[in-house]
Design a protein that fits this description.
The protein has 221 residues and is mainly α. Helices cover 80% and strands 0% of the residues. It has one domain: 3 helical TM bundles of succinate and fumarate reductases, CATH 1.20.1300.10. Helix 2 packs across helix 4 and helix 6 crosses helix 9. The chain is globular, with a radius of gyration of 19 Å.
């Protein structure tokens, strides 16, 4: 099957899974912003997205999207390094017109992944997983507001999360338009437009998540 046997097919799968994750980021950011303005509204969302069957199906689909994206990103990176051979050890300046993020997508992806593990242990483990298993009976799995307030009252977590959001910003500024290009939704005119849209979208996502983090830290003072 050409999707698996060709580099173009593998890149297409990585791009589609990446765009799926981009939509999730937008949803997650919007959901978190609600917490800043209404504890009741946010906890109602948390209860709606708890251990209900549709939420569990969504979680499995989302996890599959992450796994596919990570596997294919690793596969393509190893394939590219093998193709470059000894040239990859050469020290060269960044070529003109090539973004820094495009040359460091894999490293940025690793940073995003490592922080994702931290995020899951702080929130998903204490909420949906806890509701399913009852592993933390002292924690209310539907009180997401309390978890956000507790986490972002710690300045070190605030700093760590802001670093994570910066890495996501860099990853998105290249990944978004690159995925569009791979799918074929571009031409000479639209290529620059998609790059501009990517920067705007990444900035909105960054500012949205950062706003929630900083707002809760200020509330804790």
């Amino acid at each position: 099957m050409w999707l698996l046997n060709s580099s173009i097919g593998r890149k297409l799968i990585m791009s589609i899974s990446g765009l799926f994750l981009v939509l999730f980021l937008l949803f997650h950011m919007s959901m978190n912003i609600a917490a800043v303005f209404s504890e009741t509204a946010y906890n109602a969302i948390c209860e709606f997205l708890g251990a209900n069957w549709y939420a569990l199906v969504g979680t499995l689909v989302l996890a599959a999207g992450f796994i596919v994206h990570i596997i294919y990103a690793l596969w393509l990176t190893l394939q590219n390094r093998k193709a470059r051979g000894n040239d990859r050890y050469a020290v060269n300046a960044t070529p003109k017109g090539v973004e820094w993020s495009s040359q460091n997508m894999f490293v940025l992806g690793l940073i995003v992944l490592l922080f994702l593990v931290l995020h899951l242990t702080q929130f998903w483990y204490k909420m949906q997983f806890n509701e399913i298993t009852g592993v933390l009976p002292e924690v209310n799995p539907h009180d997401g507001y309390a978890l956000i307030r507790e986490t972002f009252s710690n300045i070190w977590f605030v700093i760590l999360y802001l670093v994570w959001f910066v890495a996501i910003w860099f990853h998105l500024t290249h990944g978004f338009w690159s995925a569009i290009q791979t799918i074929g939704w571009n031409n000479r005119i639209w290529m620059q437009r998609w790059k501009c849209i990517s920067n705007i979208f990444a900035t909105i996502v960054f500012l949205g998540f950062a706003f929630v983090t900083v707002a809760f830290y200020i509330k804790s003072l």
